[in-house]
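User:
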Amino acid sequence: MTTTAPTAAASSGTRATRTAVAAEARAVVKTYGRGETAVRALDGADLSIATGRFTAVMGPSGSGKSTLMHALAGLDTVDSGEVLLGGTDLTTLSEDRRTLLRRERIGFVFQAFNLVPSLTAAENIALPLTLAGRRPDPEWMAQLVDVVGLGDRLTHRPTELSGGQQQRVAVARALIARPEIVFADEPTGNLDSRSGGAVLGFLQYAARELGQSIVMVTHDPRAAAHADRVVFLADGRIVDELADPTAAAVLTTMTRLGAGEE
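Assistant: Predicted structure:
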């Protein structure tokens, strides 16, 4: 992977904000359904996401990890508790204001790529800015294209790209507007190990070298090992975490949680 070193100002800013909080969930409760069929997906969940860090969220099936990410990203409302993006409490916003906030302050990477088939790779990357009536900064665009290795694919449409290349376009698209935080939902789920490893490397680079705050939901211990920190959910709550994780340590924790231990 070819990378372009960040500017001195960018590096300094990354160091200065390393311990700041990018997003936070405080005693968040989310229930789906009613009566006997009700499912409490989040049960007083508390989580703080540090600025400029790569955080992975894991847990057994039904643990609430995707629900928590959707709440933090303003994609879903919660029943009680607070969800903060910077100093903004998302639970106080209308749907229209949450939509605007997502467009202006959040980036997304999805398992299914979600590229627009009629647009070129370059146009897909620039799409968040295009929708906001803005143009990409040429130097920033060039740096992102260099980082994700798409310099010779910018005029290609999604059908002319491999799965790994499409996800690299999606990563660049998530970063182009310089969002406060990027949420990645199983970003390597549709990729082979080599392409998945490359995408994870780009996300890791974005956090460590560009100061980007990233939250990734994954079921893969090898993917989680690329993060600076892994948090584990069970029954709608954070029950464990690992700093500087290894795939083996993540797998051990997941095995324990899957067996019902806390």
